[in-house]
């Protein structure tokens, strides 16, 4: 005899919970903290499949219950759903701490370019760094710091000032890595957080962003090396808006010496941590 089936009811609640959770991520935009925006159309297809499965499960609510009810079978999917809700309610900065990024990507020119780059540094006019003992915290209505999240890609080769924003970040960073001589002496402007590696000098750090290829699981730190005479006073993961001149500096990493691009910072402004810290492939 058919009657209300508690076992199927539990399955219905779990699947419906997944549907609502995924729908919330997609409609609020929170999904971009977990996957590359290019994958969002696939997630809408996934949501459709889960919704169909939810409706199918609802047809089994009034069926003959099995004699053995193994509630332990619900634990895995229930725990995954609970973890998802927990991560969703966690601040973005705490999410990145929990993820433990794979590694830092510090870009540098090829070994064969070292002599040419050294000569170009000598030919550049030295620009005196400004003393930035107390970096100001920017406000929402502060117009002194230009927004780096809008606008089209800059013509990096023709311009003497290169502005990295969320749209062109990976494109320009890759070009600097592949063609460093085209950028030596140019003014660089970008935003990111302070990252230090164990092999860095005290006043050197990376102006970094979290780079996501597919999803949060493959996120890693990427960015440009920077140097400031008081860089050691900056806190780890402090967000900054910086501007300076790109030069090269000899660094020894993993027992090998090489010249790497590095920004000699002239101006810097502290920023609050943004809601979305990622740049995408």
Task: Report what the structure shows.
The protein is α/β, with parallel strands linked by helices. It folds into two domains: 3-89, no CATH class; 104-280, Nucleic acid-binding proteins (OB fold (Dihydrolipoamide Acetyltransferase, E2P), Beta Barrel), CATH 2.40.50.140. Helix content is 30%, strand content 25%. It is built from six helices and ten strands, in the order βααβααβαβαββββββ. The chain has a five-stranded mixed barrel. A two-stranded antiparallel sheet has the order 1-2. Helix 1 packs antiparallel against helix 2 (40-58) and helix 1 (6-28) packs parallel to helix 3 (75-88). The relative contact order is 0.16. Residues 97-154 have low confidence and may be disordered.
Descriptive keywords:
single chain, alpha/beta, OB fold (Dihydrolipoamide Acetyltransferase, E2P), two-stranded antiparallel sheet, 10 strands, elongated
